[in-house]
Amino acid sequence: PLMYRVNLNSAVHAVAQVMDAEDILLVVVTSHGAPGVLSTSFDELITRDVSPNDINAALEKAGGPNAILILPACYSGSFAEELARPNRLILTGADADSVSFGCNDQNEWTDWGRAFFVDAFGQTNDPREAARLAQALVAALEEEQGLPPSSPMIVEGSDVGRILDAWLAELD
């Protein structure tokens, strides 16, 4: 379905209802971005974009679960400060002032999205390490193409590392 505030709230709430305290909710929101918004407008059906406040509201209404928030969009770093919580890992495709290259309707992924989901997760199960690998891959690609840095971000809350480490230990 189309992603907008109501669907976001419904999906987060439904998953959070079956989560245990040590579980981690994965939220991926990919769309076109501008400072402080992710585009979810769709002709006359949906007229309001998603803001960091909308994502926070959905998570808080669901009980504030441990979460990994992945935002592979232009200017997605503008969400990081407002979304930051001790039990959240936030991964963005660009900083607050930059575009995420490769973002167009003909591509399945932005350059960061492809580097993270396709390339880096082939090497590690740890989303923090995958994000670091993706940062390096994107930086090299941007330098090679003479593009300004998009500076993808990793914002790790003070508690989420311990939670992720415990989860990753179960995978071994």
Helices, by number, come to 6
* Class per helix and strand makeup: alpha/beta
Spatial order of the strands forming the largest sheet: 1-4-5-6
Largest sheet: 4 strands, mixed
Name the overall outline: globular
Helix fraction bin: 25-40%
Elements, N to C (H/E): HEEEHEHEHHEH
- Spatial gap, N to C terminus: 34 Å
Q: What share of residues are in beta strands?
A: 5-15%
Instruction: Note poorly predicted spans.
Output: none
The average pLDDT value, as a whole number, equals 86
Using only CA atoms, what is the Rg? Answer: 16 Å
Count of DSSP strands:
6
Short description:
The protein is of the alpha/beta class.
For this entry, give a set of tags.
172 residues, alpha/beta, 4-stranded mixed beta sheet, 6 strands, 12% strand
Describe the structure.
This protein is an alpha/beta fold and 172 residues long. The chain is 38% helix and 12% strand. It is built from 6 helices and 6 strands, in the order αβββαβαβααβα. The chain has helices spanning 5-16, 52-61, 80-83, 111-119, 127-145, 160-171, and strands at 25-28, 33-34, 37-38, 67-71, 88-92, 154-156. The strands form 2 sheets. Strands 1-4-5-6 form a 4-stranded mixed sheet, sandwiched between helices. It has a two-stranded antiparallel ribbon with strand order 2-3. Helix 4 (111-119) crosses helix 5. The mean pLDDT is 86.
